[in-house]
Design brief:
single chain, alpha/beta, 5-stranded mixed beta barrel, 5 helices, elongated
Length: 261
């Protein structure tokens, strides 16, 4: 019996199982490396766009393409009665000494731009939720006078998995899973800019957290996961190879004993 037939043709099930483990491990490892590379590229893109001049939402007609990942300043008055609380959002950066992100809300609030008949939706920041009473909102403060908001433009505030669409009647407070700019424009029948502004100015006095993580946050974790998946693939191969060699040596020994007899 040759080594090829002993390792492969004589162990079809074991060989197919090993190939499955190796394929899954290598595929998942490559996917994790790609995710890390995507985050690095996004960080480089943001850094390049951050270096560009600050845009003004009050004086410039900004499109989504122009505003995305650009620093933007806007002046106007908040419309707190139309606020939307996006739930199941983790704290942007976990509190010091904590390994897990606390659940909470993103506060989406429309800003009526001064001297214009247009609205800009602002992601004002994160606030913790009440774990015992979902509809009891965290205490935050909203200026009644005109404010100047500084932030970065994005197509949306981020999405989470939701079962079905939430198209029922509006209730107060508005607690939603996701945010849809187009639906908000239709619902309120107002003219709004085609992007959201993620406020970046730190101001703990309003009760909101805005220490947004870097796009490269989690890159080290992706590399660690990739190592684990590649290690799994290697272990699967080594187990298949070593067990096959042991079986091959045993068969050679048995075959030699039969020849002597």
């Amino acid at each position: 019996m040759n080594i090829f037939s002993s390792l492969i043709t004589g162990r079809i099930v074991a060989t197919l199982s090993a190939l499955a483990v190796i394929g899954i491990g290598c595929g998942a490892g490559v996917w994790q490396l790609n995710r890390a590379q995507q985050k690095i590229q996004l960080s480089d893109s943001l850094a390049a766009r951050f270096a560009l001049p600050v845009l003004n939402a009050n004086t410039e007609n900004l499109s989504l393409e122009v505003a995305t990942e650009r620093r933007i300043v806007a002046q106007g008055r908040f419309l707190p009665d139309q606020a939307v609380w996006l739930e199941n959002r983790p704290r942007p950066i976990p509190a010091s000494g904590s390994n897990t992100a606390q659940a909470g809300f993103y506060l989406m609030m429309p800003l009526s731009l001064d001297d214009q008949n247009r609205v800009l939706w602002v992601n004002r920041g994160w606030a913790p939720r009440n774990n015992e009473n979902r509809v009891q909102l965290p205490p935050i403060s909203t200026p009644e006078t005109a404010v100047v908001i500084e932030g970065v433009g994005f197509p949306h505030p981020g999405r989470v998995y939701a079962l079905g669409e939430q198209d029922g009647p509006i209730t107060q407070p508005r607690i939603e899973q996701n945010f849809d700019l187009a639906k908000e424009a239709t619902r309120h029948n107002w003219v709004q800019l085609p992007f959201i502004l993620r406020e970046s100015k730190a101001d703990s006095s309003d009760g909101l957290v805005r220490n947004w993580p870097s796009p490269t946050n989690g890159v080290d974790r992706h590399y660690a996961y990739a190592f684990q998946w590649f290690a799994l693939a290697l272990c699967g191969f080594l187990f298949w190879l070593i067990s096959g060699l042991i079986q091959y040596k045993r068969q050679r020994k048995d075959f030699g004993d039969e020849v002597e007899r």
